[in-house]
Amino acid sequence: MIDRMHEPLAKVLGARSAAPLAALGAEDVGGLLAHYPRRYGDPGAVSDLARLAVGEHVTVVARVARATVRKMHSRGGALLQAVVTDGRHDLSLTFFAKSPGVLRHHEDRLKPGRMGLFTGVVGQYRGERQLTHPDYLIIGVDAEDEESALLEASRPIPIYPASAKTPSWRVQRAVRTVLDPLAEADVPDPLPEAVRERRGFGSRLAALRDVHEPFDEAQWRRGRERLRYEEAFVLQVALAQRRARAAQEEATARPPVAGGLLEGFDADLPFTLTRGQVAVGQEIAVEIAQPRPMQRLLQGEVGSGKTVVALRAMLQVVDAGGQAALLAPTEVLAAQHARTLRALLGDRAAGGMLGGAEQATRVALLTGSAGAAARKEALLDAASGAAGIVVGTHALLSENVQFADLGLVVVDEQHRFGVEQRDALRAKARTTPHLLVMTATPIPRTVAMTVFGDLETSTLAEIPAGRSPISTVVVPAGKQAWMARVWQRVREEVDAGHRAYVVCARIEPDPPDAGGRAGASGASSGETSDGADLLDLAEAGDGPGADRPPLRAVLEVAEELAGAPALAGVRVGVLHGRLAPAEKDAAMAAFASGEAPVLVSTTVVEVGVDVPEATVMVVLDADRFGLSQLHQLRGRVGRGSAPGLCLLVSVAEPGAPSARRVETMAETTDGFRLAAVDLELRSEGDVLGAAQSGRGSSLRLLRVVTDAAVIEEAREDAAVVVADDPDLVAHPALAAEIADRLDPEREEFLERA
Ligand code: ADP
Ligand code: MG
User: Fold this and answer.
1) Which ligand 1 atom is the nearest neighbour of the CA of 302?
2) What would the CATH number be for the domain defined by 470-688?
3) DSSP state of 47
4) Could you tell me the pTM of the whole model?
């Protein structure tokens, strides 16, 4: 049997019709049918040509009197002008295009004498009524007779995501051409019979007809519901399979060892673990003592003490003879983690050195930029097992890094790592290593179920006692006196022996001739913004044409502050992604030691940087940052005994939509509350990451944030199906769909939040 759904469009429609569809991402029949209408147009009431009111949405039945294409000399481009008539009254139709060629197909269809239905909004040009770019049906071409044409005309009009070259109506025609001849047997249904029955869904072919050729609104809603469910179900089955496969994998059990490093570490710990740290620690300790790989996501508020939890797990593994790898998203963070771990371990990290504790191990730091000698030593320590703990960035994944016995992989701030990288690291062990993923970005349950669906979740809810409160103040950028006060506050903190971060959205200012607006839009280029997760203007709520001052830049602000009277005699450091690794380390070290107590930086300090003396966080252009990023930034202060202060400098008018984020920040420090507001304010694409929002995305109808109920149901159904039949032997259509939608390259999106 022919695999209809995979037939290339070029074969079915001809190369000329297929080419523009390929540009929209539709290569085969299945791909085109998955190009769902974005919305449905109102067909408009059938009107009399004698009574057409300007501005009204109408459908008229009329005969084509004439149609001519001509070039527009004044404006360039081409124009098709047609006149339709009911015998007594005329109406003109106008189509514009860049070139006459584009208009030829209208000319071919609008042959004088043909009857048709014409739909559009009535306009007026030089006193005459006209429809510009109307939708239309020609009787005898698009519909058999007037009756069926009228029926056609009363149907909701599917409006497709289209391009200038491939307008919606052309997509619609192509869809009909491929959809009409299909039979049930041509369209494999990934939903098992039992699931369809339980949820009251029809076949997939029926659903495709419902969304592409509906007769009324109820029908397309029904079709979308079923297809949306299908997306959730396919995803959840894939995740259930991953969980099932992982559960069958073999891991090396790493039970706690009496009298080991962990016991000694716990005994010497300078603080008491929070109840959450104890509980999660216990959960992890039990799991890594099993011969099955742990797969756990640890969520915890910034400063909730995830590192200690991870270190205790690493020590249990080291005690049991294995090694642990800690992956960090940036070199700055990897270096900091190595420093923190060594400091926490003290003598216990001085293995093989004079003064090292008896069973001491070593913490190796492996980064892409380490010097050749340091790198060689770290590589040797990892390969020989002398280093029980190896810290690094993705450089750890390169092929020449060997481990003696990798037992645990800890990934810090998961959203920067894809599944391939995770798998690459797991491939470096004899048995599957245990996996602990840590994230400080609170993840709502449905997103966790979708994005981290193959991981079990633990949460550290409380913040260690004795943590200082942080107050947050929104500062209007335009008010001179307020800004002066900001730098004065920074000075006061510095004088009290504390440190201050000043975060800017970009590294370099605009060239002088670029003007304010270019400054705002230019900020999204990676070149100057250094990874800041900036919202674009429309999203920030300013509207596209908003006139706002250019974004402040690190280099400019650092220079200003160095010369500011308020900060006279204070050294101002600079940190951004374009510095060499050694310069970054030096900047962080000078800041940490207090030598340069004010640090002007990009968001490179966002994740995990830990300087307990830092008490002030100034964020310039704060209204352009996402909430989770602001939350991360704020988490950099108040980590020591002194209270923290977060100053959000914003140009947004108080009360304006763009001010909502900074105002919410000032209201609460609860990460889960912030995450909820963030999701409300953001679009779906942001939630799932770029991979999910662009074309090629396998989620077209499902909205992870709002479709919680659908995801829950699909997850239940998926669990039943996979428990029964893990390899989907009895469900070939479902297996094929998973392979199709979630090939390994694409499966990466499962890991991005
Ligand atoms: P995060 O969850 O953001 O990674 P960290 O693990 O970096 O948090 O912990 C933040 C700080 O709190 C560190 O300086 C750490 O040593 C300290 N800390 C961790 N647990 C406790 C605790 N139970 N009591 C007091 N301080 C703690
Ligand atoms: Mg951390």
Assistant:
1) 3
2) 3.40.50.300
3) -
4) 0.64
